[in-house]
Amino acid sequence: xxxxxxxxxxxxxxxxxxxxxxxxxxxxxxxxxxxxxxxxxxxxxxxxxxxxxxxxxxxxxxxxxxxxxxxxxxxxxxxxxxxxxxxxxxxxxxxxxxxxxxxxxxxxxxxxxxxxxxxxxxxxxxxxxxxxxxxxxxxxxxxxxxxxxxxxxxxxxxxxxxxxxxxxxxxxxxxxxxxxxxxxxxxxxxxxxxxxxxxxxxxxxxxxxxxxxxxxxxxxxxxxxxxxxxxxxxxxxxxxxxxxxxxxxxxxxxxxxxxxxxxxxxxxxxxxxxxxxxxxxxxxxxxxxxxxxxxxxxxxxxxx
Length: 304
Fold this sequence. Notes:
- The protein has a domain at about 105-280: CATH 3.30.1330.60.
- The longest helix is centred in the first third of the chain and has 23 residues, at about 25-50.
- Helix 5 packs antiparallel against helix 7 (about 170-185).
- The protein is elongated.
- The chain is about 40% helix and about 10% strand.
- By secondary structure, the chain is an alpha+beta fold.
- The strands form two sheets. A five-stranded mixed sheet has the order 1-2-5-3-4.
- It is built from nine helices and seven strands, in the order H-H-H-H-H-H-E-E-H-E-H-E-E-H-E-E.
């Protein structure tokens, strides 16, 4: 081998291999993030499916609350999420925020409405903490009516609240009334109790004992049970039997749920209206002078 060939430099060529874009691992990170977010979504949906209506309402109110209000502890029901000063759809509106409340709450003072909501929350906790009452949750309905907080105990064909055609309470009805009586006693507001039935008539019609008497008897039986459980008798303002005349929305008069007891914690405005209605003096009627009228042959009165 010649000396020139020994001094020849050795050149090593390394080929740099570049993989195609779809062979890189970056897509795996994006896919993992997507699956994590999807799993979190399913977890949130599963948790929401286990909460009651009141908790869902509270969660919705939390997300409707503007951040500035949440940080400063402002009034959630009077805060607007609009960027326009004053809120509302009208850009010229600057006098105040648009209230997000139901029509039943618009004329009710905020402190009284807060107390009624607190009472509703207390009743919800009593129901949730009692296994026996949780089984009856489908037969307990709470909402805000124009008169105040309404608690309705509705009947069921499989689990009636009263014996058939009687005002005798079943044991689970007694359980409900005994547990809610102390809670109802926590507020000074007066209470109204009304009984309702379905339209199944008695054999003798309305000439004898009928749904009118049955609904009134059941309302009074509920009153006696509440008082026996500790409800102050002075809180009772009205006990009435409504028969089958007032049905629940989207129901037939013969449906089981129309057999119910409605307990309303009255707001001050509704209580005063009931008291004033009962205390209003009879209007003085002025009889028509006999000489100025005569009864015609048709039985009508004509005035000269």
